[in-house]
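Quick question, first post here. What does this chain look like in 3D?
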Amino acid sequence: MDLIQKKQKIEDSDGEEIIQEGEVDENFEQRVQKLLYETDNGLNLYNKPVMPLIYYEFNEDIKQQAEQVINQDTTILPQDKYEKYEKEASKIWDKFYRHHQNNFFKDRHYLEREIPELNHFKESHQKDETKLYVICEMGCGVGNALFPLRKNYTFFKKVYGFDFSKRAIDVLKANELYDETVFQACVCDLVLDPLPDFERPDLGTLIFVLSAISPENHLMVVRKIFEWMKPGSVLYFRDYGQYDFGQINLSKKKNRKLKNNFYVKHDGVRVYYFSNEEVTSLFTTAGFKQLDVKAHYRYIENRKTKVKMYRVWVQGRYLKE
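> Answer (accepted):
Ran it through. Tokens below.
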């Protein structure tokens, strides 16, 4: 990974999820070969001090240490358990959102620096104010991407979202920022349902969604998205990467493995961990042109629990020509 040399602002939200189960592992302190503190002085959008953005350098030694832990977890849950979690997935996510409401995932302000199309849209709109765009978040949850993007980029004339959790959509629609003249959200299961009859977006997002779907359905889902999107549109993808803190933690706990790189958490939520190569193959096989793919290796410390996390996220941008 090319370590970032440019200073950037970072907020608490960049950690994506609040880790509620985890343990401090001193052995993995040696995974950090180099930490870069990159920050600007100032306040974020919520008038809180800007937090440091810290990367670590991932190398072969770190990979071998992680693989040793992961490969020791050889117990795979029985097929009936696998089928149970598959069948009850929507109920599990409804329960998740009923408990957490909109307090679990943080708003995804980092998207502004990760999606260059946003700047392209902005420049085009500045030249011609009649030039407006459409965005759709697939697996939108409670709107942690849609609301910040619409707030900062008013050139989105329509903001669409769908999720297979009815509870998540209810929470999203109850948000005071939900303006029915701009936003439209509905319940839709990416695996089982046809995609909504929305206006086709210029920009689509698939953020920490595919990992919650059984791996045997990944290609089918991405193909469905490809067929649904219009020529010239871009899909932004971000999800959990192999050797992430979460995967190592689940491997240590045992009896959480459903398939290779696919696990179930304590609350029944499932999670898959992707490699860059796998993501590339998945999206290009479905028909997309890959614009870029890369892994983020981030160090984060939960200030409340003191849990030290070495996160791995994979992201890519994909064009439908």
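The first strand starts at residue 36 and ends at 38.
The radius of gyration is 19 Å.
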